[in-house]
Write a structure and sequence with these properties.
about 450 residues, mainly alpha, about 0% strand, about 75% helix, binds tryptophan, Amino acid/polyamine transporter I
């Protein structure tokens, strides 16, 4: 392996790792996706299942993934391979790493398009287009955006090119420092919007919707979506945490860092919900309208609130930034792979990766513009998909990420030797036992159960 081993360097501190991983975790998943899937899946009960998934499955798997990276100290596939060798197990386990790389790559193919919406909204907000706009006018701005392939292509090209250049130049460390300002700023902005929404929207109804669990509204597919989103929002099973773990100094506590990241991520997602839903209910919008939710609800608030042009512009700048820090992490392992295996320079590797992604991103662009060729109509692994975006989203979030998480859990808790695992995580005895037990039994059982239900092998 010596010929392919690339020294990727190390984080300067625990904080640098936390910032980078938080930058990866907090993104469109928290502010765009979480609210709309919550809206589609009936609210409160979905939120509870989601929180349980974060706590009982996401956090344990995140610790597992980070430890694989840190012990292996290479790109995901090679790290898993090295650890499999250490444990005397089959090197085919490295597929756990490769699969993550593919998932991250596929996620970026639609993520870049949505990030493009966010950037285009910086200009919409900046131009004052939302000022005093009625809900219907705000909806028209969004549907107009979706009806113009060239605009969507333009913005997703900017996102992919920007991502490729940042990764290629290797300047992401500078960006990660910016996370330490941008994340608190994002939090404050969301709180301001939530405060406005609480006073001017239907806050009572939003609280009831988000926190009153009506389990009759929750379906099994909703449970799987919550599970998949727990992986998505924490950036699990997509290569990122393994590669970030690979740069982590040995002296750092993995579990404490992971808890901090997961807490920040969950907090931002919940506050995003509190900012969005009062406006949705106060303006008679549809909570279950799907991917456009944040793009038609918040602009209404920006159009009416004091300083709305300023706050709106700032909000979409922050959202674009959050999306960028995630995009970068998403192709990091694919680019590292290309550098290691194809021997390309970092810049060439990054630019070729985003070029291929550009073509795949067209599937999402034309799904939203409603092009006939992008329409689908079949059941794919337990879900009726109507376009390519839904297919790729479902394939990654509901299938590849849960299965990748399952494989990671099995690898760390069953294949790796316990002393090696113990040495790497540095936890108190009882905490270790709880975590290890969860990873060994609860995670595999819960993921298999939900998944087998989805594919119809079992049915509850
Ligand atoms: N966590 C990101 C978000 O919520 C999305 C994501 C999924 C991601 N997998 C990733 C980001 C891998 C970076 C790396 O927006």
């Amino acid at each position: 392996m010596s010929t392919t081993h690339v020294d990727h360097g190390q984080w300067s501190s625990r904080l640098a790792f936390i910032l980078a991983a938080t930058g990866a975790a907090v993104g469109l998943g928290n502010i765009w996706k979480f609210p709309y899937i919550m809206g589609e899946n009936g609210g409160g009960a979905f939120v509870i299942v989601y929180l349980l998934c974060i706590l009982g499955i996401g956090i344990p798997v995140m610790i597992a993934e980070t430890l694989i990276g840190r012990r292996g100290r290479q790109s995901p596939g090679n790290s898993v391979k090295a650890l499999a060798i250490e444990a005397g197990a089959n090197t085919k386990w490295s597929v756990v790493g490769w699969a993550g790389l593919v998932s991250g790559f596929l996620i970026l193919s639609f993520y870049a398009v949505i990030a493009g919406w966010a950037i285009s909204y910086v200009f919409q907000a900046g131009a004052g287009n939302f000022n005093n706009a009625t809900p219907a006018q705000v909806e028209t701005i969004f549907t107009t955006l979706l009806s113009e392939p060239s605009t969507l292509i333009f913005w997703s090209t900017i996102v992919l090119l920007g991502t490729g250049l940042i990764v290629g130049l290797g300047v992401k460390h500078g960006l990660e420092k910016a996370v330490s300002y941008a994340m608190p700023a994002m939090l404050v902005l969301l709180l301001i919007i939530a405060g406005y929404a609480a006073m001017n929207g239907d806050f009572g109804k939003a609280l009831h919707f988000m926190f009153y669990p009506d389990f009759s509204k929750l379906t099994y597919s909703g449970v799987l979506i919550a599970l998949g989103h727990a992986f998505f929002t924490l950036s699990l099973a997509s290569g990122a945490m393994m590669i970030y773990g690979a740069y982590l100094p040995t002296s750092t506590s993995i579990s404490k860092s992971v808890l901090a990241i997961a807490f920040a991520d969950t907090l931002i997602a919940l506050i995003a919900g509190l900012a969005i839903f009062p406006i949705v209910f106060g303006n008679g919008l549809e909570a279950s309208q799907g991917p456009g939710l944040v793009f038609v609800s918040l602009p209404i608030a920006f159009g009416q609130m004091w300083g709305g042009t300023f706050f709106g512009t700032l909000f979409f700048i922050m959202l674009s930034f959050a999306a960028f820090t995630s995009s970068i992490a998403m192709i990091e392992s694919a680019v590292a792979w290309v550098v290691e295996h194809l021997g390309l320079s970092r810049m060439k590797a990054a630019l070729s990766t985003v070029s291929i992604l550009w073509f795949i991103s067209m599937l999402t662009v034309f799904s939203f513009t409603g092009a006939e060729w992008a329409k689908l109509d079949f059941v794919f692994i337990g879900k009726h998909v109507t376009n390519y975006f839904e297919l790729v989203d479902h394939l990654t979030s509901d299938v590849l990420l849960p299965l990748g998480g399952l494989a990671t859990a099995i690898f760390v808790a069953w294949v790796m030797k316990k002393p090696a695992v113990k040495e790497e995580v540095d936890m108190y005895e009882t905490t270790f036992s709880i975590w290890y037990f969860t990873l060994r039994w609860l995670t595999p059982f819960a993921v298999s159960f939900v998944f087998l239900n989805l594919v119809g092998v079992i049915s509850f």
